[in-house]
Design a protein that fits this description.
Blueprint lengths: L1 H9 L17 H7 L4 H4 L18 H13 L16 H12 L12 E3 L5 E3 H11 L10 H4 L19 H13 L10 H6 L4 H12 L4
Antiparallel strand pairs: 1-2
Helix pairs in contact: 2-5, 4-5, 6-10, 8-10
């Protein structure tokens, strides 16, 4: 029963929040103009050139709108975004989300990796990351990431589950650690991502983030 609850809860995804959020209805053409200032950090087409800034290209509209709303309200604290959305209307955010969703994400790729577990054992990071993404680890209460983010890591845009494949490993790692420490807390009342992340060690987070960055079709 416990595993059923965990798997059901994970359906909230990596910080997607309320399931009642309506599907975004934005204008991608209008969003291109409105997103001009976003390009300084995220790239004109949503493909950031800096690993600490997330790629927005190809992300689902619903997820992007939710994140912008949370950042504007303060529910998600992102120091680099302070003031950026103060004057953005809900329609502005829907349009920006529609524009970035329509772009193609450039894949980051994985790299060969060795990680040292808490036990002191050194293991292949890609093998460990693949296991966590595809099967989870029932022994520590971590369900498979692909249950919500899909086997290819493309997420589920209508449900608001974000795309992870092709995202920078550094950014994914940073977000998982933020959920683990509670500095990112916009994963809804179920606290699903915080609950999952708290069971992961630094080595496991690094391994699964690196594996995800290399997922393709």
């Amino acid at each position: 029963m416990k595993r059923i609850v965990i798997n059901t809860a994970l359906a909230l995804g990596l910080g997607i929040g309320a399931a009642s959020l309506a599907m975004a209805d934005g204008d991608a053409k209008a969003g291109q103009t409105k997103a001009a200032t976003c390009g300084a950090c995220h790239g004109a087409d949503g493909n950031s050139a800096v690993p600490t800034f997330p790629k927005l290209a190809g992300q689902g509209e619903k997820y992007l709108v939710k994140q912008m709303m949370d950042i504007k309200s303060g529910a998600r604290q992102v120091p680099q975004m302070v003031g950026q959305l103060d004057n953005a209307t809900p329609q502005d955010m829907r349009d920006i989300a529609a524009y970035f969703h329509a772009q193609t994400m450039q894949l980051s790729g994985s790299k060969p990796q060795k990680v040292k577990l808490n036990s002191g054992e050194t293991v292949d990071g890609l093998t460990l990351g693949r296991k966590l993404f595809r099967a989870g680890d029932a022994a520590i209460g971590v369900p498979a990431c692909m249950g919500c983010h899909s086997p290819t890591g493309k997420g589920n845009p209508p449900a608001g589950f974000p795309r992870l494949s092709g995202q920078y490993a550094e950014y994914i790692e940073k977000q998982l650690k933020a959920f683990r420490e509670g500095s990112r807390a916009n994963d809804g009342d179920t606290r699903v991502m915080r609950t999952v992340a708290k069971h992961l060690s630094d080595a496991e987070i690094s391994a699964v983030a690196n594996y995800i960055a290399g997922l393709t079709d």
